[in-house]
Amino acid sequence: MSTGIKFSGSFFEQTFYGEMRDIHRSRIKPGFRETAIIAEISLFLIQLINQYGSLFIFSGLIIYFSFFYDQVMIFSV
């Protein structure tokens, strides 16, 4: 089940769901450990959203990523 969430920017330029583990394991440069932890937590949140459909957590995730990465985010469902 894919959410179709995409991120703009160099780090999040692929589809979020399913690609985040590959980024975490192979593509992270030294110094991006905090980003990896945030990505893992966000992947867990998105799995919860897929199960329960909580729009409140979803909107919170948008604000969360906008605050930390200062990038425009594109959502295609």
- How many individual helices? 3
Strand content: 5-15%
Q: What strand order characterises the main sheet?
A: 1-2
Poorly predicted sequence stretches spanning 5 or more consecutive residues: 6-14, 63-77
Report the helical percentage.
55-70%
The first-to-last residue Cα distance is 12 Å
State the total count of DSSP E strands: 2
Based on Cα principal axes, name the global outline: globular
Q: How many domains make up the coordinates?
A: 1
Q: Strand pairing plus helix content: what structural class?
A: mainly alpha
Keywords: Membrane, Transmembrane, Transmembrane helix
Transmembrane segments: 55-75
Descriptive overview:
The protein is mainly α. It has one domain. It is 61% helix and 8% strand. It has three helices and two strands, in the order βαααβ. Strands 1-2 form a two-stranded antiparallel ribbon. The longest helix has 20 residues, at 33-52. Mean pLDDT is 54; it is low at 6-14 and 63-77. Keywords: Membrane, Transmembrane, Transmembrane helix. The chain crosses the membrane at residues 55-75.
What can be said about this structure in brief?
Keywords: Membrane, Transmembrane, Transmembrane helix. By secondary structure, the protein is mainly α.
Task: Outline the fold blueprint.
Layout (H helix, E strand, L loop, with lengths): L4 E3 L8 H12 L5 H20 L2 H15 L3 E3 L2
Antiparallel strand pairs: 1-2
